[in-house]
Amino acid sequence: MDLIKITDLTNQLGISSRSLRYYEQVGLIESVRSDTEKFRYYDTQNIQRLKQIMVLRKMQIPIKDILRIYESEDMSTVVDAFVSRIRTIDDEVDALSELRSVVNEFLQAMIENGVKKISALPILYEEMEKRVDALEERKVMSYSKLSDLSEKLAKPLETSIVCLPAMRVISSQLKENPNLSDTDSFRHWAQVNDIWRGEPGSQKIFEFQIGTGDVVMMKIEDDFINKSPYLDYAFEGGLFAAANIYLDEDLGERFRALLSGFDSNKYYQIDYRYDGTLRHPALLEKLISPDDQRELVSLLVPVRKRTADPALYEKPQEIAPGAISLEEMEGQNLSLWTVDVPMDKLMPINDPHYQVTEQGEAEYIAWISTRLLSTNVAVKLPFRVDIEFRIRKENMQFAWGADEGSIRLYHGNDLNYLFGINMETNPDERLSQEAICFHQPIFRDYYRYTKRGGINRNQYNRLTWIIGQKQIAVIINNEIRYCGVNFPYMSADLRNQEPFPILIGSNGQSRVFFKSIRVSQLAQVQKTKIKKEELLMNTRQSNNIIPIIHRLVTDEYGENYWFNGCAKYVMECLGEKDYDYWFFAGLTGDLFTQHYTYTKFSGDAVSCYMMNEKPAEFVEDIFGRCGYAATFVAKGDIQKNSGMYLQTLMAYIDKGIPVIVWGDTSVGVFVGYEDYGNVLLYITGNNKQPERISLNKALEGKPDTTGWIFVGDKKESLSLAKLYREAIRDILKYQNVKTDTYCFGPEAFRAWASDIENGKFDKMTAEEFDTWAYYTNYVCVLATNGSCCHEFLKRTWELNQDMGYLEEISALYRRTAQIWGGDRMQNDADNLEVLGGGFNVTLEALQNQEKRSIIAAKIREAAVCIDRVVQILKENTISKE
User: Fold this and answer.
1) Which end is more exposed in the chain, N or C (fewer Cβ atoms within 10 Å of the end residue's Cβ)?
2) Residue-wise burial string across 598-624, b where 16 or more C-beta atoms lie within 10 A, e elsewhere
3) Are strands 213-219 and 296-305 parallel, antiparallel or unpaired?
4) What does the pLDDT average to over 135-161?
5) What is the model's pLDDT at position 659?
6) Is 47 exposed, middle or buried (0-12, 13-18, 19+ CB in 10 A)?
7) Which pLDDT score is estimated for 395?
8) Which 8-state DSSP code applies to residue 774?
9) Tens of pLDDT along 61-78?
10) What is the DSSP string of 606-665?
11) 93 pLDDT above the threshold of 50
12) What is the DSSP letter of 181?
């Protein structure tokens, strides 16, 4: 019996091996395979049947009908299938013929009647007489012509662009010879070892082809130890064009259609290597099919962004003066976050003249245009920059020719592309153009508008550049000098743009004084796909949830401070592994600082007090110190404009970033939404899964001290060693806080002890005694800090080898843990737990004069330890600064 190997058969007939396996799966053909072989083989009978199937499929006979044909011995079944297909074709031909006739008649009548306006078409239609074109002469149909016709009549592919994540994978390719693949044995091995995991569409299991056969590729964890005979490697991921197809379709034809569909795509192109091969072989991923009788897969082909060509787009238009007001422009370019750049924090690039004057201005001379000042603030498109500056007229010497006194912005370090005003000046004022010049983002074509960019000499000038999603605008001294719309970059998908720093520059000897520089990240405007009520349907995504879902904190391991848990959750979703819970607990001071409230209970930790008093400043400071922009939006502001903030929240969820919720009694994160945002998914407490709360419930809260926290884009990368060092230095800042209502540090222990000793609880009933608020919260902070700060101190010392004094600080905090009773190895007979003043405290103990005096004395011992911590920090930080 003659047998043909699967790889030879696929080459001979031009059919994919995946289609062959599908035909086997549904029972149309059979293969043979010996125990010693890794490949399937087909005999003559199955090859003949396969050829028949291919002809039937080219005629678009459905698989279910082909199965009926081979299951029945009655020729009538074949006839029925063909008749059914002919009827379908007749219907399509009739419809296409009629449409062709109508289109042709319109064309001829328009030419004959000189129609030039669309409004005349209804009248023209009434005057037309329908005609039917004669049928073309019949021609003999070959298999190749049948294939061409099949491709022409195939439904166009609906494609999307997906970004596959980089991942570690293991494949059916063999370690000893990667050119060989054993898919069946690999599947068996993966199932036996319980690593065959991945639901359809989960982007974890893929198939592709190499020259010698099929390959199965599966995601594995980074720490997986591969002792198998199969090859593992890093899959780089990236952009892929995806199209959903059924396996009973012609995979080869669909693959070619997918490739050719990008020939004229403005934004993306197939990603070929220099040798003409794809960056990665085309992938197949199994999906859940809405039709149980047909297997659905996603066909994925690597793509990359096409080099932008403005010639493919309509030219931008300038808005006429007065057609838009400053207020309207502000409303159409909302800021997500804003950074006021300190004049002493500008970073000189290429050694310009730069100093900060006694008046607090940044004095700057460029000499040449490549000597700049960096704001150290990175933004994505769209963005806005506001500058207040002055230039002394007497300093405009034009020593190196024209172009003195320009003000230039750069988005990133490529200085070939700029946004400038007062460009092309000249010693002869009659020749000065005072132009506005800029390069369009992404496409980088150049625009120049003369006599638009002039400024006032020896006076302060206010300059605003709006590089928006709807407009590019230049505003000088509250006058709109230029406003353009319909730039090609505005139609691009800006969500995946990288953030770049804003650089400020000039040219020549002009001495520029910058009084203020503000950089704003603008919100992306949701593009309107249809006119209002055009289709009477909602096209927004109704449900979404971020991919990372787990508990907010694990308080059984001492993670007791909720702000830090929320901050860590956001950073985890942003891919920041170093910014964990303990990092934030040290950064906020929670991990080192005791607190105590004289009057009403104010919160569980230092961060609670900061959020209750100045939430916006605290949030901006903490995340800013990590290099990120962040905004606290108070509930009062959210309630006034709930629609806009809900859209912002949903946009964050769509990007996989949670939004922090600071509430009256609850702190947590929004991780998803349902019903177009009317229901929000919220994680708080020890919940492993989110709870569902209504939007109305989410909008409740005190207008000033509760709200939502949006963590924006990364502005800069900072030294981890420096962050830890500064966190240790800032311990001093928290240890000396004392107000009319609360205090921190050693004073907190003493105030706590004094209230106990002076009889604060004497007249309190059991019903009035809130154990947590009046007492055990302070024990919890004492216990957590004394037991949990050491890893932070150790990490700081590892990163900063000159901070050996941290060893003594760690010992002092361990002593506070012993005072509470957390170090069982010390057998301290009079710790707070033994004395009844720990977590086991009772109102009776606090009302007993003898017991409470002993408890108060033990708490004061903790104050002495922190006194010594303060002294060590003063000796080793303040004295060295």
Assistant:
1) C
2) eeeebbbbbbbbbbbeebbebbbebbe
3) unpaired
4) 57
5) 95
6) middle
7) 58
8) I
9) 777 777 777 776 666 666
10) HHHHHHHH-HHHHHHHHHHTTTEEEEEEEHHHHHHTHHHHHHHHHHHHHTT--EEEE-SS
11) yes
12) B
> Using CA atoms, how far apart are residues 462 and 423, in angstroms rounded to an integer?
16
Interatomic CA distance for residues 482 and 847, integer angstroms = 75
Residue type, 144: S
Cα separation of 212 and 836, whole Å? 76
Task: Please give the share of the chain, as a percent, with pLDDT higher than 90.
Answer: 41
Q: Measure Cα distances from 248 to 24, 26, 47 in Å.
A: 11, 10, 17
| Dist CA 826 CA 823 (whole Å) | 6
* Strands (DSSP E) found in 48-174: 159-164, 167-174
Q: Let me know: does 204 contact 197? Beta carbons within 8 Å.
A: yes
Across the range 131-157, mean pLDDT stands at: 49
Q: Give helix 44-58 / helix 17-25 axis angle, nearest 10°.
A: 100
HSE of 66, CA atoms in CB hemisphere, 13 A: 23
Give the pLDDT of residue 119.
46
Cβ 776 vs Cβ 569: under 8 Å:
no
**Could you tell me the pLDDT band of residue 536, with boundaries at 50, 70 and 90?**
very low
* Rounded Cα gap, residues 642 and 610, in angstroms: 25
CB-count burial class (<10 Å; 0-12, 13-18, 19+) for 365:
middle
> Cα 158 vs. chain centroid, distance in angstroms?
25
Residue 130 has pLDDT above 70, yes or no: no
- β-bridge mates for residue 241, sequence order: 161, 301
Contact 40, 31 (CB under 8 A): yes
In this predicted structure, what is the pLDDT of residue 541?
A: 58
Range in 13-27, 177-191, 496-510 with the lowest mean pLDDT:
13-27
488: exposed, middle or buried (C-beta count within 10 Å: 0-12, 13-18, 19+)?
buried
In this predicted structure, what is the pLDDT of residue 127? 45
What's residue 38's pLDDT? 67
> Which of 833, 835, 839 shows the shortest CA–CA distance to 854?
835
Distance (Å, rounded) from C-alpha 839 to C-alpha 848? 17
Tell whether the model's pLDDT for residue 131 goes beyond 50.
no
3-state secondary structure of 503: strand
In which band, very low, low, confident or very high, does the pLDDT at 525 lie, cut at 50, 70 and 90? low
Q: For 359-388, what is the HEC assignment?
A: CCCEEEECECCCCEEEEEEEECCCEEEEEE
Give the amino acid at 479: E
Q: How far apart, in whole angstroms, are the C-alpha atoms of residue 851 and residue 342?
A: 55
If pLDDT is split at 50, 70 and 90, which confidence band does 622 have? very high
- Cα gap 438→422, rounded to integer Å: 12
Q: How far apart are CA 412 and CA 419, in angstroms?
A: 12
pLDDT at 122 over 50: no
Q: How far apart are CA 374 and CA 501, in angstroms?
A: 7
Handedness of CA 395, 399, 404, 409 (dihedral sign): negative
Nearest partner of 781 among 727, 739, 825, 742, judged by Cα: 742
Instruction: Please tell me the pTM assigned to this model.
Output: 0.44
> What's the mean pLDDT in 736-760?
92
Residue 75's pLDDT is: 64
Which of 65-74, 461-470, 676-685 is least confident? 65-74
Instruction: Tell me what pLDDT residue 120 has.
Output: 46
Whole-number Å distance between alpha carbons of 251 and 201? 19
Pairing, β 544-545 against β 512-522: unpaired
Model confidence at 145: pLDDT above 60:
no
Is 180 in a helix, a strand, or coil? coil
Distance CA(371)–CA(505), nearest Å, equals 7
DSSP labels for 840-869? T--HHHHH-HHHHHHHHHHHHHHHHHHHHH
